[in-house]
Amino acid sequence: MAISRDGAVENARKDLANRLNIDPGDVKERSVEDSDFPDLSLGAAEDGEMSGQMITPGWRIRLEAQGKTFEYRADKNQVRLYKFKGKNYRI
Amino acid sequence: MNRNNIFIHLALALVLILVAAFAGQLNRMRKQWKPVQIVPTEDKKRPRTAEEMALSEARPSGRPEVLVKFKTGVSRSAIEALTLRLNDRIEDRIEHSAGWESVDDLDNADAEAIVAEYSKLPEVEYVEPNFEIELSEVEEGNPLLPVLPHDPQFNEQWALANSGQRGGTQGADISATLAWATTTGDDDIVVAVLDSGVDYTHEDLITNMWMRPANMAPYQDAELGPVDDVHGFNAIDNDSDPMDENGHGTHCAGIIGAEGENNLGIAGVNWKVKIMPLKFMGAGGFGTTKDAIEAINYVIDRKKAGVNVRVISASWGGTMRSRALEDVIRKAYENDILFVAAAGNASVNNDRRPHYPSSYNVPNVISVAALDRNDQLAKFSNYGAKSVAIAAPGVDILSTWLGNAYEEKSGTSMATPVVSGVAALILAENPRMPVDELRSRILGAVDPLAVLKGKTVTGGRINAAKALAD
Predict the structure, then answer these.
(1) What pLDDT is stored for residue B26 in this prediction?
(2) Which of B286, B312, B326 to mutate against chain A (most A CBs within 10 Å)?
(3) Pairing of strands B185-195, B365-371
(4) Bridge partners for B233 per DSSP
(5) Whether B66 contacts B118, CB under 8 Å
(6) Whole-prediction pTM value?
(7) Active site residue ranges of B
(8) Which residue of A has its CA nearest to B249?
(9) Do the chains contact at B410 and A49, CB–CB below 8 Å?
């Protein structure tokens, strides 16, 4: 089923809270922007992952927690965490 | 002079003036009266072959000619009246493209001026010079004529025929319509689309989908045993169903080989070809190196089993180098299979930051950058004077999509199947051409672009007509 913009933000918030072991209410939404990503892994491929090289519309989600900003990237098919501790994750 | 003489002289002068005026009007009318000549067309159901075109064409030398596409609903009489008013002559109707007229200018204005004149008319959809191209046929006096399909959305396929539509640059295309005067493809040529699978039920693809011949044994996977690969191969689920769940692979397949001249949707670079669908990327459009390798091994196996698969189109990639992937691509080379790969969409120089598989230094790999409709390197496209071979149209490309739909997409993903498609056209004319020669032929058939100097190996945009000219 296709992921909506709000659904993507909610998934991202829960994922970050889980990773940081904090309450989801402590994760603040800084911004959500429409964005064109360079490929079907939303410019956030995991190691060894191959993706279609097609410009892909989606959303760039910036969340704040523990005084830091975290970037998630999402489209109708997926949500990804961009460079969390130097690595990309597909959630 | 008495009073009567004055009247006589005045009357004579009036008569002379009237005679002069009448003669002038007659002269103007004579100049304007140019009979509209319409060469009757035969009711042909198929496009003309190059040979037929060479025989039929007798364009007067030195007289400019343009191809005009009138809007739907503009009547025959209105077209005739319009060309008459502009002192032009309808030289010919273009048989296999409704609404197209070949217009001959009787004032000998240059082609660009005629194009500009017609472009302003509300009745005209678009207009282009009837280009002569530097092919051997032209030198021998047998110019190729563009071949235009009836597919209703062909006018939106700027990559194949750029008439300047939607702010583009006329001629910034791969000269497909001239290539089609030589061949529109051959369904003996199989192109493997290694991707998210293909919607093999799409109405504009179904005729051109590969199916395992009934007399060929099913694929034997080393671990899984027999796989009934009637439609191709799915390396994710290790089964026989390569149905696309994303749309990306279906889009790429349509660029290579949406059926042409079928009055549906679009035309592929090949009107006739066989697309072998391979699925290693899922609904999200991403996959693993391991599954890509499995799918390439499948292609090699089928080649050895007798399938004439000569091209793998790979509109995907990543930044991690894999020796195993490189090795299997080399194995494809050893089996005479070309591997066309997307240069990537990160706007970076691949000479410094390689993108794989396009950056593998294997002799069958062609790395492809993307151009927009104005012959500019797409802002997202990777490049590389040493590592990116060639450029092809890759912005706002209309092609097939899931559910019998059509969508415009952008990316080096879209440029890659353009090159794969041209490779298939070359093979249609030269079925036994070895992969090294095929690659050289493609890289030697470019239109040089200043914007690509120092950005790609060839510095040019692929030209399908040139690729078929040798």
Answers:
(1) 37
(2) B286
(3) unpaired
(4) B278
(5) yes
(6) 0.77
(7) 195, 248, 413
(8) A52
(9) no
